[in-house]
Amino acid sequence: MAVRVNRIGLEPQVYKGGKTTLCAGCGHNAISERIIDAFYDMGVDPRRVIKLSGIGCSSKSPAYFLGGSHGFNAVHGRMPSVGTGAMLANQKLTAIGISGDGDTGAIGIGQFVHLMRRNLPIIYIIEDNGCYGLTKGQFSPTADLGSKLKTGVINDLPPIDTCALAVELGATFVARSFSGDKRQPSALMKAALAHRGTAMLDVISPCVTFNDHEGSTKSFAYVKDHAEALEEISFVPAFDDIVVEYAPGTTLEVKLHDGSRLRLSKLEEGYDPRDRARAVARLLAADEKGEVLTGLCYVNTGAPTFLDALGLADAPLATQPEEVVRPSRAALQEIMVSLA
Ligand SMILES: Cc1ncc(C[n+]2csc(CCOP(=O)(O)OP(=O)(O)O)c2C)c(N)n1
Ligand code: SF4
Ligand SMILES: [Mg+2]
Fold this sequence. Notes:
Blueprint: H1 27-41, E1 49-53, H2 57-60, E2 70-73, H3 79-89, E3 94-100, H4 101-105, H5 109-118, E4 122-128, E5 131-132, E6 138-139, H6 162-169, E7 173-178, H7 183-194, E8 198-204, H8 220-226, E9 227-229, E10 231-236, E11 251-255, E12 261-266, H9 276-288, E13 292-299, H10 306-310, H11 322-325, H12 329-339
Helix pairs in contact: 1-7, 3-5, 5-6, 6-9
């Protein structure tokens, strides 16, 4: 029987990772599956990928996909700076960072803020369960006001909407989805792979052990009942024949830098993900109604990336000989003299 391979000749097995040690049914496992599918379908070479994370159950998940890729499990909340260093050293890599709502919204919020405004080319996924799963379920900064833990504790602080924050900070691709949905996260991840800049995906991912029960606003049941999709998303990679069939006036196509296209069948009149102010307004309006707005909230395909802004040479620094990357003794001497 012929072995199934993708467009670069690799088998699905190559995209898998180690066996998960997360709880059975954890939303994070479903997200790992979507990542495996997206990287396989897009024909990304795992040897050219760096997986990064912080600390948490979510941050353990890079061990469960793309087993042959580079990996760096950083300190809690500090993955963005490690990712920035990695991409400065080798901008030819594809970077994917996995964080949690605690890792991003609490200890890592300062790093998150600057990552979003810098537009570093990285896919940044928040596996958002509204709690600190790894340390037994305490509320995180994305837990909704009034949501209840299994222990009966009620959250009395308002949440941070990471998507609204990211849009305000200047992020260029901001989406929200749900781990229980197969189609939407896949399309968003493929589009994120084709995006040039930071692609931020907040994926609601219920913690079945500490925060998936009646009363939790991050439970499967709550999100299923309160999810409102902004649009039906299809992703057309640049290497596919583009066959377009859509009713005029109901679909918006957004062209990404590599020629891939995001096709959004609008469920509501006039939603344009390129309108930044509208994106923030829609996210905040959904929050007020207790709804979870899913889909591509905002995209800007024309902004320069952090690497463009720094004017890096095309050849990765990591591959350059020491004579090129290290200043000469004379150059250092000149600096010392200028400081005297
Ligand atoms: C510097 C530091 N502070 C605190 C901790 C304890 N700690 C480990 S994971 C975690 C929170 C994880 O929550 P989240 O990022 O939401 O991941 P989840 O486990 O929910 O997927 C905390 C507070 C730590 N490991 N390091
Ligand atoms: S404790 Fe929660 S977040 Fe952690 S693996 Fe279990 S279900 Fe997932
Ligand atoms: Mg969490």
